[in-house]
Amino acid sequence: MKYKTYIVIVSLDPDIAHLRAVAECITSAGCVPVIADNGSKDVRSIQEIPGCQLISLGENTGIAHAQNKGIECALENGAEVIGFFDQDSTADVALIRTLTAALDDDNIKIAAPVSIDAKTGEAYPNHRVGSNGRLVDVYPDGREAFTQVDVSISSGTFVKREVFAKVGLFDESFFIDFVDVEWCLRCRRAGIPITIVNAARMPHSIGESNRKIGPLTVNVHSPYRTYYKVRNAFLLSSKGLGRSFSFSQLLPAVVQNGLLIFDKQRGKEYRKYYFQAIKDGLKKRDGKYEQWHNRT
After folding, report:
1. What CATH number should be reported for the domain whose range is 5-204?
2. Model pLDDT for residues 162-191, shown as the tens digit of each residue
3. Closest by alpha carbon to 155, among 43, 67, 62?
4. Sequence ranges of the chain with CATH classification 3.90.550.60
5. Is residue 95 predicted with pLDDT exceeding 80?
6. Are strands 110-117 and 158-160 parallel, antiparallel or unpaired?
7. Distance between CA 162 and CA 214 in Å, rounded?
């Protein structure tokens, strides 16, 4: 690894033992962990994690804002590469070194791992933008060292500082959800592909659980989180990403999350946030839910 590397983790009431273990992996790999904390109750325990630079934001400011604060901290300290992990990501020294080593190639500006479903062991797809403007699933090719894609999740992604200078930071108007998608597509417009390092494999879980509803498998999040998944699908249309792409993201978000309003235990909560998300999406209301509504 020839680059000075900082790795940003956004935390909110994390499993402290797990977060500490990830931070230790980061420092053992020769990188600096930056924890941007979104108002955890036990922030003192996070502060005590050795080797970390802590940014205490005091409240939940959204993942995009917290990531941006981490990026700014890293850049101010001379970082040449900035990586990202979720607070519950499963990271090890080998994974970090494999990803950072890929960036020794001057032609690679963004490196990301193959994300593996922690429950099934199957690879999650990354995505390219097809000729019709919609996302096409791309799975790792075991015959090649690298696979170029247009969209990947932020966790496990390592980015050279020059990319942020060219395309900017994350869009805070989303608060959470579609943040990484929108940023990746800005990179695509700037001619910067994302390189999947096929030897780097990172266990990952999407959603709190998966639920089979008819022919569809739905990633189940909390009713509050579902608000952002639905509302932000509407907001994509105002980001200049193309009608075909925006519609291809809007339709599944509305349909799949709409199935949750029939949940026997929490259907009332899902209905509240789901229909409010549609109203706010049509009105182009962005930012935090509480900016527009009381959370009860």
Report:
1. 3.90.550.60
2. 999 999 999 999 999 999 999 999 999 999
3. 67
4. 5-204
5. yes
6. antiparallel
7. 46
